[in-house]
């Protein structure tokens, strides 16, 4: 069953119980995506599928025929960091780093969602262009937990990227 | 997770036949796979319906037809939903996270199961999970549990937000049966009270497949979704209220209220809507509406607070919706 991961063609063959998360980590060797709770509560497993962020622990690999999956490895490399990765380093947006790949994939998608005008729970006017204020970032990133509590630095890192874009 | 066979539905009729024969349908999978990992759901056959052509939102008469595979994200962001049914956008955005809403679907969300701790814990008694085993919540940790319409067999709540707004909007659930017939079930009648069969969450029969949710013509007015929960984001409702209310020359021209977090179903009582209609807003009126809702309420210890909280939140919502000082 074909699918594309970080621009590379893959062919999933295996037990249908395999989650996308386990497939990425165990079969594809893409261990950047992390398994935290394995129940969709922590966001450590966040990846992009066809550009949208999802919890890769709560979907089966076999459901993703012909989909385009992007993991943290597809966003940047050690020698060529994604701007969000560089911002997380500058702002110390982590301590242990376990939630960081999910945080960065999530932040990438959040910026795209806001650009598309998707409102959130804290958006005052459902039709105004979305401005990613601190309150908006906190609400929109609430699916990514950080047990070290680096939240304020994560908000700073994301905010810096948004200001660079403006 | 137990082993299962996986295949894809080629057509709605195929999905109907498979589910009639005991298969579980998977759409977003965010609730089903969670429960399968815990072996609370143990289907032998899983049918993936994601490739069916049910992910469109389209005008339907004066209303709107939302395909059952429309994701929560797409529904909340759709311009017509935002513009004409803002209480629905607000309710969806009050639930879960962007990651989950990008997968969760309209049909699947209606079918999501309770988050009762004892339903989720296979070491505990739960008549919903294991009929006849008892209800550990009755004398257990029942802070999140029902105060309306519960039974001695089950005090679980329906956990969703979207369906609460749909109940206020008086939407219909479009269901296709194995014989190909299509029927509409008012969303207010879709979920059921537990009675002595709490294992049944809703009125779907074996072989039924939800194909759409249909919204009636826009009613305008003030639309509010107020959700009270333990965290500011990403938590289920302790109490939530969807309110669609129109004023005319200082009087309430029409009102529709629905409640989440209180019962085994989104709670709607047309007597409350009628009591408000035609009246000038006042605290006395709002107290009477709250009495109508809560006079039969029953709490179980840890959720005693819900009765008073519901009264206060209801009054605040009605004050806001009618333009009184909040």
UniProtKB/TrEMBL annotation, chain B:
InterPro entries: CO_DH_flav_C, CO_DH_flav_C_dom_sf, Diverse_Substr_Oxidored, FAD-bd_PCMH, FAD-bd_PCMH-like_sf, FAD-bd_PCMH_sub1, FAD-bd_PCMH_sub2, Mopterin_DH_FAD-bd. Keywords: FAD, Flavoprotein. It comes from the Bacteria. GO terms for molecular function: FAD binding; oxidoreductase activity. Residues 1-220 form the FAD-binding PCMH-type domain. This is Xanthine dehydrogenase.
């Amino acid at each position: 069953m074909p699918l594309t991961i970080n621009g590379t063609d893959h062919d999933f063959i295996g037990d249908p119980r395999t989650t996308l998360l386990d497939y990425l980590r165990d079969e594809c060797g893409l261990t950047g995506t992390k398994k935290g709770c394995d129940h969709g509560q922590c966001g450590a497993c966040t990846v992009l599928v066809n550009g949208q962020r999802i919890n890769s622990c709560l979907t089966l690999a076999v459901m993703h025929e012909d989909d385009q999956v992007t993991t943290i490895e597809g966003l940047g490399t050690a020698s060529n960091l994604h701007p969000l990765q560089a911002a997380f380093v500058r702002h110390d947006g982590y301590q242990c780093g376990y939630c960081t790949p999910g945080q960065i994939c999530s932040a990438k998608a959040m910026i795209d969602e806001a650009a598309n005008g998707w409102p959130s729970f804290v958006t005052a006017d459902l039709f105004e262009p979305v401005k990613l204020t601190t309150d908006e970032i906190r609400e929109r990133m609430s699916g990514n937990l950080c047990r070290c509590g680096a939240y304020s630095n994560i908000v700073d890192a994301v905010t810096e990227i948004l200001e660079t874009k403006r | 997770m137990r082993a299962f066979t996986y295949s894809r539905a080629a057509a709605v009729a195929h999905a109907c036949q498979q589910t009639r024969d005991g298969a579980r349908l998977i759409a977003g999978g965010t609730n089903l796979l969670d429960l399968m990992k815990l072996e609370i759901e143990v289907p032998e056959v899983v049918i993936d319906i994601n490739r069916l052509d049910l992910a469109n939102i389209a005008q339907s008469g004066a209303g709107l037809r939302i395909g059952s595979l429309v994701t929560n994200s797409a529904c909340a962001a759709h311009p017509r939903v935002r513009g004409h049914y803002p209480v629905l956008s607000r309710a969806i955005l009050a639930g879960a996270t962007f990651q989950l809403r990008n997968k969760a679907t309209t049909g699947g969300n209606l079918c999501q199961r309770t988050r009762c701790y004892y339903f989720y814990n296979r070491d505990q008694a739960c008549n919903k999970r294991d009929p006849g085993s008892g209800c550990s919540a009755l004398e257990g940790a029942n802070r999140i549990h029902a105060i309306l319409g519960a039974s001695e067999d089950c005090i679980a709540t329906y956990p969703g937000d979207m369906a609460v707004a749909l109940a206020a909007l008086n939407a219909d659930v479009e269901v296709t049966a194995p014989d190909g017939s299509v029927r509409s079930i008012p969303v207010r009648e879709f979920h059921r009270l537990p009675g002595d069969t709490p294992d049944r969450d809703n009125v779907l029969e074996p072989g039924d497949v939800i194909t759409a949710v249909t919204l009636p013509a826009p009613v305008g007015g003030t639309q509010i979704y107020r959700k009270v929960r333990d965290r500011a984001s990403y938590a289920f409702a302790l109490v939530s209220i969807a309110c669609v209310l129109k004023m005319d020359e200082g009087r309430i021209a029409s009102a529709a209220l629905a409640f989440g977090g209180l019962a085994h179903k989104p709670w709607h009582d047309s007597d409350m809507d009628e009591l408000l209609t035609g009246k000038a807003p006042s605290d006395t009126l709002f107290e009477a509406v709250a009495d109508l809702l809560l006079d039969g309420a029953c709490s179980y210890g840890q959720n005693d607070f819900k009765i008073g909280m519901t009264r206060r939140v209801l009054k605040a919502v009605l004050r806001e919706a009618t333009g009184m000082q909040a």
